[in-house]
Amino acid sequence: MSGFTTRGWILFAVMAVVWGVPYLFIKEAVDTLTPATVVAGRTLLGALVLLPIALHRRALRPALKKWPWVLAFGAIEMAGPFLLLGHAEQTLPSGLTGLLVATVPLFAALIAFGRGDRSALRPSRIAGLALGFVGLVVIVAGPGLAVAGAPGLVAVGEVLLVALLYAIAPFIVATKLADVPAIGTITLALVAVGLFYLPLAGLTQHEMPSIRSGVALILLAVLCTAVAFVAFFALIAEVGPVRAPLFTYVNPVVAILLGAIVLGEHLSVGLLIGFPIVIVGCWLAGTGGVIRWRAQRSTSTSTTHDTNSDVTIAAIDPAASQTSPPTSPTTSSTPPTA
Questions:
Q1: What is the Cα–Cα distance from 206 to 203, expressed in whole angstroms?
Q2: Could you tell me whether strands 311-314 and 330-331 are parallel, antiparallel, or unpaired per DSSP bridges?
Q3: Which residues contact 104 (CB under 8 A, 6 or more apart)?
Q4: What is the DSSP string of 111-148?
Q5: Can you give the pTM of this predicted structure?
Q6: How many Cα atoms sit within 13 Å of 80 on the Cβ side?
Q7: Please, are residues 101 and 166 in contact by the beta-carbon 8 Å criterion?
Q8: Which residue has the higher pLDDT, 282 or 174?
Q9: In sequence order, what are the beta bridge partners of 314?
Q10: φ, ψ at 205 (rounded to 5°)
Q11: pLDDT digits (tens, 9 = 90+) for 288-319
């Protein structure tokens, strides 16, 4: 099993941070903004940031040609999860929510296995996923995992559904949208989701937002939406749809660390013990326990063979021009290597 590239690990670290900090920003934003307003604001502002780039690269036309899959990605990755998480977090403690969302890599491995990729459940991969999940349990274990009554069980089901949706989305990108410029797909999906939530925001927002909430919303839009989704697509192209969600193991850790640094929240012994376990688990699941640093590709558009999904997908470089014709995904006949 081939490991992460150096670029893959860098993108992994970026995603671990930019999708770990939203917990902090959302907590500030919802102080005076409704959940629907936050979702509409972060998606539409994020689209506004990316729109000039998408227009300059003429990336919207290819995305519009595949609009059903772009809308499917937006619904599965953004619209559905944002709504479900907003409802579930009214009942569940944040520790349990983070733990349940971190089941994304487990669902991704099962999806890949169901699609015929037997390497998705090889022993080294399962050992890494299990070890990382154990590390998360150590971090958030305790009273923060308690669930009270039927509403709590419904909320658990909602978050598990979110994890499943998050696991499905990268496969849509890798198999249906690989030949579409990433910036076009992201921008179009953000606009669609934002317009969907805008009427709900108008109906529910009655309070004048504070400056802190406004700043938090802007940071959510720029860092955790626009920048994050560009990095997310690049990560999928670099390491494939099975390995890409591994960063969700680290997101709760980043959230806890930021809570301690910014909000003065208590750092538990469980974090100090569990964090190294999470990192080792991610490394084992991502590399199979083999230390192998591959040279960085010099071309801006190339193909990466993903042994996890057993397809060849076009590498998406967020900094590269989209003027050259993309490579369409093709089924690979080369079996995964040990």
A1: 8
A2: antiparallel
A3: 163, 166, 167, 245, 248
A4: HHHHTT-GGGG-HHHHHHHHHHHHHHHHHH-SGGG---
A5: 0.74
A6: 19
A7: yes
A8: 174
A9: 303
A10: -90, 110
A11: 665 554 444 444 444 443 433 333 333 333 33
